[in-house]
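User: Run a structure prediction on this.
Assistant: Running it now.
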Amino acid sequence: METWPKIEIDRQDSYDMCFGCGKANPAGLKLKFAWDENTKTASAEFFAAEHLQGWPGYLHGGITSCVLDEAMGWAALLAGSHCVTAKMQIRFRRMVPIGQKYLLSCRVTKQNTRLIETEAVMADLSGNVFAEGTGTQFVVKPGGGQK
């Protein structure tokens, strides 16, 4: 029998200090996701600024992973569930040049009462895919905790 961890977390509606989306986090990415009800897709634009580089001229892989994780979390949230990441897998298709704008898009692919699975893509504005991610997230129940 598989057991699920108990997740004690204060579910709040203010994410101001979140590194990915927080408006008040001075070091954060300040991503703003929109929900397309027709396609059931969350999307945001992301600018790969110079201070986020790893190898000279390219975005750090951890930041690429971070923005895809953020997209997967927002897809779940905008689809109606508060979640925390249980696992994710990132596929880097090519190095991400800094100084350019990218589109993040994500959708929920599977959902039950405990878990949500998502797929995310990071592409340039011409549609060239730079990275993809899949994730599984624990659904956090109202009142805190995973039951």
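Strands lie at 34-36, 41-47, 83-92, 101-111, 115-124, 129-139.
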